[in-house]
Amino acid sequence: MALSLASFQSCFKRTERNLQIFSLLMGLLTILFFYLAFPSGGVPELAWFTLVPVLFVLNKLSLRNAFMLGLLAATLGWFVSIWWVIAGLAEITSSSANIMLPFVLLFCLLSALPYAVACWTHVRFKFGHSISGAFFSAIVFTVLVNYIPHILPGNLAHALYQQPIFIQLADIGGVALVFFIIHVINILIANGINFSTSNTTKATQCFGLACLLFLANMAYGSYKQHALLNYVDAPTKTIKIAMLQPNIDVSNRSRIDWKNAQATISQLLTQVNKEQGIDLIIFPEVPVPISFQHYQNDGLFFNRFLAETPLLLTAISPFDESTTQDVSYFNTMELIESNAVQQEYAKQVLLPFGEYLPYEQQFPWLRKVFPFAPNYKPGNTSTLFTLNNAQGESIQAIPLICYEAVFSEQIAAGVAQGGELMINTSNDAWFFQTAGRKVHLALSLFRSVEYRQYLVRATNTGLSAVINPYGQIVEGSEITADTQGYSVVDIPIEKHSSFYQMFPNFIKIIFILICFVFLIYARVKNVNR
Fold this sequence. Notes:
Blueprint: H1 2-37, H2 52-58, H3 63-82, H4 84-93, H5 97-124, H6 131-146, H7 170-195, H8 200-229, E1 237-245, H9 255-273, E2 280-283, H10 296-306, E3 311-316, E4 331-337, E5 340-346, H11 365-369, E6 385-388, E7 394-401, H12 408-416, E8 421-426, H13 436-451, E9 455-459, E10 465-467, E11 485-493, H14 499-502, H15 506-528
Parallel strand pairs: 1-2, 2-3, 7-8, 8-9
Antiparallel strand pairs: 1-11, 3-4, 4-5, 6-7, 9-10
């Protein structure tokens, strides 16, 4: 009897150890899929299967182990997808990558918590044991990952940025609804695999429903793209825009560096001047300090080439060599016309570490760790730039500097004020030739689908392009990355609108209410037992 009990305990421990090893392997497989699916990996098709390995094994785990597996997989998944941030932020702050590493790891850990809680919830409420559970679990994932404020709102939905047919649901529920579809399909596949050995009927239903949802999403995307091709109404207005890509290396950061760069910039501006009928020239964010209104030489330089053509210049106010708390400056856009700045916009959403030190007031030691970190001040006013075309018609443009374009709420404010066109300027050269610029483009591109507006994205070194209202890159608008160049695009200002534009919180409210009602139901059911 004692021998049998000992044998049973030994077998149990061995089985438990095997399960832990298997769970880790499934977690590593999900991490690999996440890396490959995200823009950093370039295999977006894997987004539809990325979570299947982890979700498959969750049913066999305890609540604690489910939480820990979700936390581990999501933390490492985030890290392998945004590792390029380390070198980029180290370059911006003139610090060591070794110093930046623990801060990035902490960010990844915090970003993983919603996934860990969702995995715990999946096991706690047995969402892996039914078809309806797949939908509830996907809603929980969606609410936790998308509706909790985040400094870098990236997720699996952004893996599909080069496949616009699959992201058109963003015009109903934003990125969150695309995220929901991806996750409910992942969960149905995982549930189907689990049912395959015990209930083939349910397994078939899970796989069939996953295929049906995939095809329905693709059909909606095809319908929307077909509507674009057959849009018969002529645009009420058009504007001809020239985007410059200066390709100034980030090692150049001073006024002297800017003066040295002007020789090649002059050649670029001379080429642009030969183009006919340009309504606006866009000069993106660059690493050197420039400003039409604060640096007299800059005004003289640009006026040599652009005396009659309006210029949208991404600039900064003058700053001192030191970057102490007492010395601050704005990251701005200047709309220059008739030899004067007609309008100005100060960036409102700043990049942590890249433009300011988060929680510096609470943790003053951060300034000692990052003594050369920038110290920008956020603007506090949303502004629309009034642009004029050759016919004298005005177009209201929403200015977005760098990372502001990844936040849907930022654009919503501009659209509500009457914005008709989004203009985003950025300097992604800080991330060198890594996937960083692809990720930045992917996160920004969804705004064009959500609000059915054109997005002009002008960058220092790439990726520069114009995105149409259906998330497609306009042919001829791209400028080869890491080269100096320009592109000229005629942009029609079409009067499209979207459900998301009119009711941006509708899906959010519905999903949160479903979670709330389900929790009450589960609580009452538990009490009655």
